[in-house]
Design a protein that fits this description.
Number of helices: 10
Helix content: 55-70%
Number of domains: 2
Distance between the termini: 7 Å
Order of helices and strands: HHHHHHHHHH
Oligomer: single chain
Number of strands: 0
Strand content: under 5%
Largest sheet: none
Length: 225
């Protein structure tokens, strides 16, 4: 995924619309929609504002386009996680790592969600549906881990554990960005987030079944966005 620097033009393949979306994602992740102007987006792509408005008349339409792309990426992840896709099977570690990378790639949506929902009511319902879909994936994976005797979670602890795993795995990037001032993620930051989740499972691990799942760590360099 190609992105722009703070002052340079975007360098990526594809049509103008796709280049606008890529540039906007990078700028929104860096500073948030409220602090990015359409003039800056156009300048980053190397087009005039009239050309930008031909594709996207408002910043709201840009946010909705980015959410639609995130939604599609999240659904691809969900299908793969639930075993409905083609290709090699993914380990729990790989799946969680993939989700973390996805959250980081679209981190402005999570970091600025409350502000976006307040100014863009059209975003609230689809975001809630997407969140429910992803939480369902987390629940399915947890129940699979229980069936495979990786963890032993008492019935009364399943719902609290699901909620905590969802919160940490979805908002870890927001925490690092807001609380630690981290704007660029490296493999160490991804490891940090993954290990926060691993600690949630720690009390429930079955020693004989946990060797291939924990401790969680990165295996690939993260994409930069």
């Amino acid at each position: 995924m190609s992105t722009a620097g703070k002052h340079g033009r975007l360098r990526t393949r594809g049509g103008t619309r796709e280049r606008v979306v890529e540039a906007t994602l990078g700028l929104f992740n860096e500073r948030g929609p409220d602090r990015v102007t359409t003039a800056e987006i156009a300048r980053t792509v190397g087009i005039n504002e009239g050309n930008l408005y031909y594709h996207f008349r408002t910043k709201e339409s840009l946010v909705l386009a980015l959410f639609a792309r995130f939604e599609a990426d999240a659904e691809t992840f969900a299908v793969r996680a639930l075993g409905g896709g083609s290709g090699e099977a993914r380990t729990y570690e790989d799946l969680l790592s993939d989700w973390f990378r996805l959250v980081w790639a679209y981190r402005f949506l999570f970091r600025d969600l409350l502000a976006l929902a307040g100014t863009m009511p059209a975003l609230a319902t689809p975001f809630r549906k997407m969140s429910a879909r992803m939480r369902g994936v987390v629940e399915a994976l947890l129940r699979r881990m229980i069936e495979e005797h990786i963890v032993n979670v008492p019935k009364d602890d399943i719902e609290p554990l699901l909620a905590n795993v969802w919160i940490v795995s979805t908002y870890w990037a927001v925490y690092l960005n807001l609380q630690k001032g981290i704007d660029e993620m490296d493999a160490g930051h991804l490891d940090w987030g993954l290990n926060q989740v691993s600690h949630l499972f720690k009390p429930f691990l079955i020693p004989t079944g946990s060797a291939d799942v924990f401790p969680l760590s990165t295996r690939r360099e993260p994409d930069s966005t």
